[in-house]
Queue: 2 jobs
Job 1
Amino acid sequence: MKPEWILIANASRARLLQREQGCPLVVVHSFDHPQSRSRSSELGDAPAGQEKADRSFGGAAYAPRLDAKEKEHLRFAHRMSEYLEQQAQQGSFKSLALYASSPFLGELKAALGSATTALVSATHDLDLTSVGLVELDQRIAHESAH
């Protein structure tokens, strides 16, 4: 039987956990993105401006401007989602629960591929990245019950 996976994340680090029936949580993979912890000024934030999204004549669509820190958050979300999508396509897990701080949870959900999205069983706007494995198991059980 395939295991359940649980992603505990914020914009700079994440742990992918696996739960099999009757077994404790196990860390499958860790992700770290120190650039998300940097200041925008350290990341070389570009001056304010807008970029035209529509290249056609007379197009008036403008993409919203992202600062360097937001770009790093999105880059991290895409890196994790690519890994999850590959694993989902290989059938490595039966379900995925997401626990991430807001607004990163939304960025992560938006980046997920179709195979991964089909396996998402729950999403929780909660940052548990600093919680140890034993307490984490209890917190996840508590959240799942609600």
Note: The beta strands are 4-9, 13-19, 26-32, 51-52, 62-63, 95-100, 120-125.
Job 2
Amino acid sequence: DLELVGDFEWSGLIIVRGKIKMTGTGNKLSGAVLAEGVDVNTGGSIGGDATILYSKCAIENAMFAAATPSPVSRGWSQIY
């Protein structure tokens, strides 16, 4: 579960396996939010002046930063 009470800013991807609840003022999310338990139609889960903006660039930056390098195995070859 994720509960945001106010004055929270995030740029990237948020994945919540439970419920999400936003109250208070100043919650600003840029990127994407994926949650199992949220009801945006009744306003029961998201209140206050929460701002959620979809941003493909923020998601790509988060995914690029999360990528871990892995060693590449190559055989030796002469190139001359």
Note: The two ends are 59 Å apart (CA to CA).
